[in-house]
Amino acid sequence: MSDFKLGVLISGNGSNLQAIIDKFKDDDFIEISCVISNKENAYGLERASKENIDNFFVDHSHYDSRKDFELHLIDILERYNVDLIILAGFMRILSEYFVEKYEGKLINIHPSLLPKHKGLNTHEKVLKEKDKLHGVTVHFVDSSLDGGPICAQSSFEVGTKDVANLEEKVHQLEHEIYPRVIEEIAKGKLYLSNGKVIKE
Ligand code: GRF
Asked: Does the beta carbon of 109 sit less than 6 angstroms from any atom of ligand 1?
């Protein structure tokens, strides 16, 4: 069986990228083929370089349109024959064109228990609404913002008023759940069928 290839899109620190690198470093089936950032100084690019993973900075501001930018991303992803695209802190909205092209092959991790708290500043929103539970969601991406079919969620009791503390707990959960879901998809145990997530 040929390798299952991941393309990871980032914009920043890349702690989720690191968790995925660590999990699949010695895997003989799943491999990270390429990492792409739309931010030049994203620390995740350094993490990729340290592991000898091909990585690219694609500056979205150099393109006339979102589609031109995405065509460049697609060019790289196709060059590497990527099987699954992982959004790991990628801070650009993707067009319907891109999302539909990769339906079922494009996943995102979001720092809240979706459908609660879409968008940014989720920890602050959790505190403001006095939520009892907080957590993370991995979902297939569709053209709604943070709204695609859910692959998996993981939660914890809030029990603090400190944003930094919530962020730390969320990251811990993210670093467990994201590699786990990626492995399930790679092994065909989790997939999208007619817009619904199937788990075997
Ligand atoms: C994570 O909290 C993820 O849920 C969100 O962006 C953050 C990325 O963190 N989409 P990192 O760059 O992986 O450290």
From this structure: yes
Nearest-atom index, ligand 1, CA of 111: 4
Cβ pair 29, 104 in contact under 8 A: no
Nearest CA to ligand 1 atom 14: 15
Residues 125-170 have pLDDT tens digits of: 999 999 999 999 999 999 888 999 999 999 999 998 899 999 999 9
Which ligand 1 atom lies nearest to the CA of residue 42? 12
C-alpha to C-alpha distance for 75 and 21, rounded to whole angstroms:
23
Given strand 84-87, what is the order of strands in its sheet?
Answer: 54-57, 30-37, 4-10, 84-87, 106-110, 133-140, 150-157
DSSP H helices in the chain = 15-24, 43-50, 66-79, 96-101, 122-128, 163-186
Amino acid in the structure at residue 97: Y
- pLDDT exceeds cutoff 90 at 2: no
Place of tokens 């993490």: 47
Which residues are part of the catalytic machinery? 110
Residue of minimum CA distance from atom 1 in ligand 1: 89
Look up the pTM and report it: 0.97
Q: Is 15 in the pocket of ligand 1 (CB under 6 A)?
A: yes
pLDDT for residue 1:
59
Tell me if 200 sits within 8 A of 189, measured CB to CB. yes
Contact 1, 83 (CB under 8 A): no
